[in-house]
Write a structure and sequence with these properties.
The chain is an alpha+beta fold and 134 residues long. It has a domain of 86 residues. Helices cover 21% and strands 37% of the residues. It has a six-stranded antiparallel sheet, with no helix packed on it. A two-stranded antiparallel ribbon has the order 1-6. Strand 3 and strand 4 form a beta hairpin. It is globular.
């Protein structure tokens, strides 16, 4: 009978240890929640002026805007009349910063598909005092 009690005590100690908080590194403490959006909430897109000609932003919902960076050449995306985002396998129906997706751009009878990465969430410009007064 004694070996059974020792075995049960050992199991309960292991279970309690699994629930105990662990020391987190500084990187874990500062980690922010992932910034994501639902593909179905995308309602606009526009090219972003900068180093790359084919980087675009997509507006998801009312306030959120994300930058998408092509992983190759995506020449006609700037002049596309419409786009479709197709998350990579396993992403489900939402995309987060760092995720990969395919963009299908259509315009002028041409359909182009290219791979993109969700680069970052674009933070809105801070409002100035003049904007708040109007």
């Amino acid at each position: 009978m004694r070996p059974i009690i020792i075995a049960l005590f050992g199991l309960s100690a292991t279970a309690l240890a699994a629930c105990a908080p662990t020391a987190a590194s500084d990187g874990d403490m500062a980690r922010e929640p992932r910034q994501c959006f639902f593909v179905s909430s995308v309602n606009a897109f526009s090219p972003i002026e900068g180093e790359r000609r084919d980087t675009i932003s997509v507006r998801a919902g009312v306030r959120d805007e994300f930058e998408l960076e092509p992983l190759g050449v995506c020449q006609d995306i700037r002049w596309a009349q419409g786009i479709a985002l197709v998350p990579s396998i396993g992403s489900g129906s939402n995309l987060c910063v760092g995720d990969l997706a395919d963009v299908v751009a259509r315009g002028g009878g041409v359909r182009e598909q290219c791979r993109v990465r969700v680069l970052r969430k674009i933070e809105p410009a801070p409002e100035t005092a003049d904007d708040q007064a109007s």
